[in-house]
Each structure stands twice: as C-alpha cells, then as structure tokens.
Amino acid sequence: MNEPYQIDQPNAYAVNNYFRQEEEQKAEIKKEETILTKQMKKQFSFFGPVSILYALFYTFCLYRNASGITYPFFVAGTLCYFFLSMKKLGVPYKKDSLFYVISVLLLGVSNCCTDSPQLLWMNKLGIFLLTFILILHTVYYDTGWNLPKYLGAILRTIGSSIACLFSPLIDLASFYDAQKQKKSNKKDYILYIMIGFSVSIPILILMTILLCSADVVFRNMMENLFNFDISLTDIIRICFLITMVFFASYALLSALCKKTVPEEVTEKKIGEPIIAITVTGMLSVIYLLFSFIQIFYLFIGNMELPEGYTYAAYARQGFFQLLAVCIINLFLVLLCLHFFKDNLILKIILTVISGCTFIMILSSALRMFMYIATYNLTFLRFFVIWSLVVIFLLMTGITIYIYFQRFPLFFYSVAVVTVFYIGLSFSHPDYWIARYNLNPAHTAYTEEYNTRTSDHYYLSTLSADAAPILLNEESNPYYTPDNMEASWMYDYCRRMGRKSNHMGIRNFNFSIFYTKNKVDIF
To answer: What angle do CA 60, 66, 69 make, to 5 degrees?
Structure first.
C-alpha cells in the first residue's frame, strides 16, 4: 500500500532527514531510550511546567462542562500543547496534517453548538480518534499504514502511556541529579517552580472559598464563571483531575518518545485464496438471489407477494438486518484483501459481493424511508440513513481498491467518515426530526393523532437543537400557554428552562442560549 498523500518537497526533506538521523543513532542508544526520550529528560524544565499548565487549562475548560464554549478552546489548546512539545523535541510538522487539525477544531466548535447527547458523545469519540491519528502521523513515518495498523498503534500507545504514568517523577529525579552534577554557579529553579505550583493550587482554592464566603458579589461572579457551588468535594475532584491530567499528558509524550510502535507494515497476505474463494463464492450465490428478489419485488414491485403480506408491510421490515449485513460485507471484503493472496477469481467474487452490497444498501434505504413515512423520524432512523450513505461511499472505495491497490484507501475512508460526520454534527438532526414530525404534510393534527402519546413523548425528549421548531408557534401548534393539556410540551419547556438557567460563562452553549427567552411563557 503506497503513501496516501503527498508532502511538499521542502517539508518532505525535513521529515526524511529527521527519520534518517534517528535511524543512524538507534544503534548507539539503549533499547529503552530513544533520542526523543533523552531530549525529553534533558528538557524537563520545559515539559514539566508546560504539562502542569495544560492540566490546569484542561480542568478549567472541561470540569463539569461537557458542551460549553470552552470546548473549542480546549481542543485548540491541546493541539498547541502537542505541537509545541514536538517542536521542542525537534520532530518536524507535516503539512498534510492540516486536514486532521481542521477536522478536530470543527468538532470542538460543534460541541458548543449542539445540545444533543448523541452528537456530543460521537463528537468526543471523533476528536479522540482523529487526534490520535494526528499524533501518530506526526511522530511516526506512517507511509503504507492501514486501518488495522492504526488501531494497533493506538492501543499500543495507550498501553505504553499507562506504563509511563510515573515518568514525571522519574524524569524530575533524573533532571535534578543532572543539574547537581553540573559544574556551574547558575541555579536552576525548575524544582522550586514545580514545588511552588504543587503548593499554590490547594492554597489558591482554599483562599477562593474563603473569599467567596466573605463577599456575596465575588461568590456570584465565581459561580457564574465556573458554574458550580464550590465545596470540599469539588476541591478534591479538581485536585485529582489536575493531577491525573498532568501525569497522563506527560506519560503520553513519554510513550511517543519511546516509539514502541514498529513503523514497517509486515506483509500478511499469506492465506490460501481457495479458502476465501470457497466462503465468498457460497455467499455470493445467496447474495445474488437476494439481490434478484429486491429488484423484482421491492424496486419494481410487479411480482406476487406471500399470502398475508401487503407491499407496504413487506417494504417496512428488515432495514436493520440489511444494515448489519452491509457492514459485515464491508469488513469481509477488507479481510479477504488483507489476509489472502491476490487471485483474479477472488477479486471477481469480491466485486460481485460489493455489487450486491450496493443493492442491499439501496433496499435498506428504501425500506427505511417507507418506515419513516409511516412511523415518523427519530435520531436512530436519521442516523441509519446517514450510515447507509457513508457505507455506500466506503464500499465504492473498497471496490476501487480491489483492482487498484495503489488507491489510498485508509486516507479516503478517514476523509469520507470525517467530512460526512462533521456535516451530520453541524446539521442538528433533532431540528430536522422535530420539523418533519410536526409538518402537517406528514402528520394530520386529528384527535386520533393526539392519542399517539408516544410520538409526542419522543418530541419532548429532544435536545435544545429542536427548539427553533418546538418553541415556534408557526411550526408547532402546541407551543401556546393556553394549551397546557399538552403536557409533553410543558415538560420540554421546563427542561429547557432548567438548562438555560444553569448556563454560565464556561458552559455557554449556543443551542441552549436560543431557548433562554422562549420558555418564559411557561
């Protein structure tokens, strides 16, 4: 597998020169110590204080604050901390990392623009994975790495970081001993600075509590700033979080410096293709028969259905099963390409499976659209449609890769998932769910519909992203103070009121801010 993207010549020279120098000096260094490890120990006066500052910054941004306006600043600060550390170690920046940097920053911005718990969870997962890929791409020469290699490298780096948790203490002792042996009259203040930091944090918190109890205006300002009542429990949690982030961030840098992940990709195509041909060949026969049925029964609809089935009932079932089969087929083709030797017959069969998968994707999407038309829209159904589009594009890339293995499949897959997920994150699915479900063209406001409390209950559980629809009299006939029997609407407004009332400076969220003046009528 060739390199997935190009690097400009000046930058490529710097990168190649860095890795060549490292290879030349590996023989002179003990196995457990690399060039970067030695540099990090020598420059503990930089990495120690910077890691402490990052831990303080992390705690300020994220303590009891999952979706505030500080989140994009946290993401930007994390990237600055990493690249500043790499620059200090002499690791060159790769300009093709810009895609990952922009993507991570956009997901950070999305976190303070949405109130959807599903999106917030996926945003954080995306930030974690993309940041780790960026870190590994910067430190390692990852030309030719594929998905299994990256997943293994992430797990190995995390394991190595756990083993390096006490690196700050070890490096501090090593740095202090080295300074004592220097024949110089100059004083090094790093040890005293770190001691001062360690002592000042609990004293600062204690003094803040005393000042808050002494002046109510100062207390209100601090509560609005941090958005929590300062207590002994908070002191313990904050100190613990600062300590853990300091050790974890420093340990991650130490693990990266050790470079425990082998950079070369070993050839694993050792499987006999006859085995894969037998398995995939039998599956392809079933898939072809299934695809034939989809075309003539579902797409064209001119063949007789089993007794007791209507066309609508037939179309509105099986989409989740088909989604699962599509995902399995995607990984099945990847496994065959990764572990089995190249074979023309195997490639043809895998192409047939890919083609059948496209038909299954279309069938699942059609079934889902018909199901939504009858039972309305939910986040899961919205996400299924999004997933089918992404799987279709991934399967397209895999089909190309079957015959052209120079195709940058890993970067293509990361780019597709990242770009489409950023679009999903900023689209606010709850907004479209509320808009669709309350549209008179899709749902008639009849007495019969009003008895379907499950639909209303689901609307009441939506996040603040749905507020532009639910808190709008033109789009939602239930948004009126005279219609208090619509308890589901009252519950939604009351929940939004609690969120907006607890919003301060740190946890300011644009989606929740919209509801602040819209729930007063309740």
So the answer is: 65
Instruction: Tell me the one-letter amino acid at 503.
Output: M
Confidence check: pLDDT of 186 > 60: no
Cα dihedral sign, 33-37-43-46 = negative
Q: Count the neighbouring beta carbons within 10 Å of the beta carbon of residue 515.
A: 24
Whether 419 shows a pLDDT value over 90: the answer reads: yes
Distances (CA, A) of 163 to 149, 209, 244, 255, 328: 21, 37, 14, 8, 35
Dig out the tokens for 3 from the structure: 């390199």
What's the whole-model pTM score? 0.81
Q: What per-residue confidence (pLDDT) applies to 12?
A: 55
- Residues near 340 by beta carbon (within 8 Å), at least 6 away in sequence: 269, 271, 272, 273, 275, 276, 346
Q: What pLDDT sits at residue 3?
A: 43
Q: What is the mean pLDDT of residues 435-454?
A: 59
Number of H helices, E strands in the chain: 23, 0
**Amino acid found at 383:** F
Helix (H) or strand (E) holding 349: helix 344-375
Structure tokens at 208: 């803040």
Mapping DSSP to helix (H, G, I), strand (E, B) and coil, where does residue 340 land?
strand
pLDDT value of residue 294:
79
* Token code pair at residue 67: 């979706």
Write out pLDDT tens, residues 169-179. Answer: 888 877 777 76
Rounded to an integer, what distance in angstroms lies between the CA atom of residue 423 and that of residue 418?
9
Q: How many CB atoms lie within 10 A of CB 440?
A: 9
Q: Give 355-375 pLDDT, tens digit per residue.
A: 988 988 888 888 888 888 878
Nearest in space to 503 (alpha carbons), one of 223, 106, 231: 223
Per-residue pLDDT for 129 more than 70? yes
Q: Which residues are CB-contacts of 129 (< 8 A; sequence separation ≥ 6)?
A: 154
Q: Which position has the token pair 């009332």?
A: 501
Integer CA distances (angstroms), 517 to 33, 353, 497, 504, 522, in order: 59, 54, 9, 15, 11
- pLDDT tens-digit series, residues 227-243: 555 666 777 788 888 88
Asked whether the CA dihedral 369, 375, 379, 384 is positive or negative, the reply is negative
303: which residues sit within 8 A by CB, 6+ positions away? 296, 297
Residues in the chain: 522
Token digits of residue 493: 């407004």
Bridge partner residues of 271 (DSSP): 340
